[in-house]
Amino acid sequence: MKPGDKLFEKIDSAIDECKIGVAVFSPRYCDSYFCLHELALFVESKKKLIPIFCDVKPSELRVGKSNNIQLEPKEIERFNLALEEAKHTVGLDFDSNKGNWSDVVTKAADVVIESLIEIEEAQIIRNPIKLIIP
């Protein structure tokens, strides 16, 4: 992005164009409107989401923990639905006191690559190439 770009337009179109989302959940993740908005877009678009729970357990993720953001009731419901979906998705766990960040990044990259291959293979099966020979 560059100065003058509309942030939400860029974020929304990038998520629309991608195939897989990786959400890195931290203890302060739910304090960020942008993080919650992006998560909701991934879940609503039914794209594959790979959660990484970094120094936080899925059960600890809640909208409205912080007074930093003011949300409308519809947004709270939307964000809660997205968080519930993420909580019930198998992800990667990382404890910064015990683990090596590069290990979890490598593991996440492997999962993303495997997932992209699965998505491509599924597309080929659903939309096989038809050759017409005269």
UniProtKB/TrEMBL annotation:
Matches recorded under Pfam families: TIR_2 (PF13676)
- Return the InterPro entries for the record: TIR_dom (IPR000157), Toll_tir_struct_dom_sf (IPR035897)
What domain of life? Eukaryota
Domain named TIR: residues = 1-87
PROSITE patterns associated with the record? TIR (PS50104)
Query: What protein name is recorded for this chain?
Result: TIR domain-containing protein
What is the species listed in this Swiss-Prot or TrEMBL entry? Solanum tuberosum
